[in-house]
Design brief:
The structure is a single chain. By secondary structure, this protein is an alpha+beta fold. It folds into 2 domains: 8-28 and 48-128 and 138-181, no CATH class; 192-332, no CATH class. Helix content is 36%, strand content 24%. The protein has a 17-stranded mixed β-sheet that branches. The longest helix has 22 residues, at 7-28.
Length: 334
């Protein structure tokens, strides 16, 4: 008579298969990551994971493979609860025709980085304080946060993992490096544009303002009401005035202040004085995103191709001014 393995044996077997799955993937299809973990001393109380990036290849039919072997063969090792993994062939066709050769996602000590064609796109940046501010803010706003989240968030910076998805390449298209660097990269162009702007003006633009709401949704800036600003030719009343119900809902959530700020590194938001993870733009992410959007035909909604190109050019001319500016807007609720 055959007996079922005891729970401990079954758990060990499942755990071993998962380890085998991870190890096999890592060995068969790996490569360098966008950013590696800094050296950490060995400590039995510390969990550090620093793995090479996993490279997945997609064919025209949407099938994924790793190291030349179908990914679904590896997934089958994990049991029937895991379904086959593939990509919509129409999406693969669209990306190939748009000359998107690879897409990457990397968890790094400083953020979750998204890249396409070897250059960064706007991503999520963080440090110790901003990661901890996530649960502190949610708890302060009355949300029920699972205690496990408090334990996991401090480990995020010590988890170095990444995935690179390589797509079919058009026959006539030159291959694009996994990581584009040098003077022709969007990052180098953006930094040069900011440096040229600062050299021209001498000091970065500085904006400081506090917008204070009343319970009825009206606001004041430096003692000036929306009506006062309208008389001065600043039509901000229609933009910033809120419905009384909206102000009441925000106040009921426990939100006292919201601060929006920018600097050359990115866009930051703080709720009740706690700065959350920010949106990055310091390495040409916006420039690269605009170029990819034009390349993929996503700007057709703006009208003829010439208009889309003109819009991209105009935004790229304004970006050095916006990104170099030191902006801080604090919104105060009753």
């Amino acid at each position: 008579m055959q007996t079922n393995p005891c729970p401990s044996t079954a758990h060990k077997l499942a755990y071993g298969l998962i380890l085998l799955f991870v190890a096999t993937l890592t060995i068969t299809g790996c490569g360098p990551r966008f950013e590696t973990q800094p050296g950490r001393p060995a400590d039995s109380q510390t969990l550090v994971v620093d793995l090479p990036a996993l490279y997945l290849d997609v064919d025209a039919a949407g099938n994924l493979s790793v190291g030349g072997a179908p990914l679904n063969d590896f997934v089958a090792l994990l049991g029937s609860n895991f379904t086959n993994i593939d990509v919509d062939p129409l999406l693969v066709q669209f990306l190939t025709e748009s000359n998107i050769q690879h897409v990457q996602l990397h968890n790094t000590p400083t953020g979750l980085r998204l890249l396409a064609n070897g250059e960064p796109l706007p991503s999520l940046g963080w440090d110790d304080a901003s990661l901890m501010a996530v649960t502190e803010t949610l708890t302060g706003l009355g949300a029920q946060v699972n205690p496990v989240v408090d334990k996991v968030l401090p480990l995020v910076q010590d988890m170095g993992v990444g995935v690179v998805i390589r797509l079919p390449v058009q026959e006539e298209a030159p291959p694009i490096p996994i990581l584009v660097q040098g003077d022709r990269s969007a990052a180098a162009s953006a930094r040069k544009a900011q440096a040229d702007f600062l050299a021209l003006v001498g000091a970065p633009p500085l904006i400081r303002a506090t917008l204070t709401y009343a319970p009825d949704g009206t606001f004041e800036i430096a003692g000036l009401t929306g009506a006062d600003l309208a008389i001065l030719g600043l039509p901000l009343q229609a933009i910033f005035t809120l419905a009384p119900g909206s102000v009441r809902q925000i106040s009921d959530l426990g939100v006292e202040t919201v601060t929006l700020s920018t600097n050359p590194e990115g866009i930051f938001i703080a709720i009740n004085g706690r700065t959350l993870p920010h949106l990055t733009w310091g390495d040409g992410e916006v420039n690269h995103a605009l170029r990819l959007a034009a390349q993929m035909g996503l700007l057709r909604m703006l009208g003829p191709a010439e208009r889309g190109i003109a819009v991209v050019d105009a935004i790229e001319r304004m970006l050095p001014v916006v990104q170099a500016a030191d902006v801080n807007l604090t919104i105060v609720f009753p």
